[in-house]
Amino acid sequence: MSKATVKKLHWRSKVQESFVPLGGASGELGVAIGGGADYGEFPFVTAAPGGGATVGDIILEIGSTPVLGLTLGDVRGVLNSCPHPIRIKTVLPGSTLCKDLRLYLSKCFTPGSMDSQLQQVIRENLYLRAVPYWHNKCF
């Protein structure tokens, strides 16, 4: 008896789009986030009392802004500056796209593939916060 080959779906096919409502009379956002490039992680949902997202999901976009590679403060800034309700794209973490940003950036992907393009977006966002430093030992 031969085993049937099960084709794994790419993480991109599992992207979910939802809208984050304001939370009740307090006017707070219906989602809390953690992670961020400053922690070496993708931004992810830590609480979703408004039901607009799933806890643990990696946040790919807020509004139309890709947030992968941004610091947690920058992701919160994007989240707070969007008109309500906020459109958010998330994906459940898996083997290829897990919460560890460094691991994803260390992988080699085929040039031009979705993963390679995503790595480029992440690097561009990381460079927004990079401070150039030049050191000359001859001084």
TrEMBL record:
GO terms for biological process: signal transduction. It comes from the Eukaryota. SUPFAM superfamilies: PDZ domain-like. The lineage of its organism: Eukaryota, Metazoa, Chordata, Craniata, Vertebrata. This is PDZ domain-containing protein. One of its GO terms (cellular component) is cytoplasm. It comes from Sinocyclocheilus grahami.
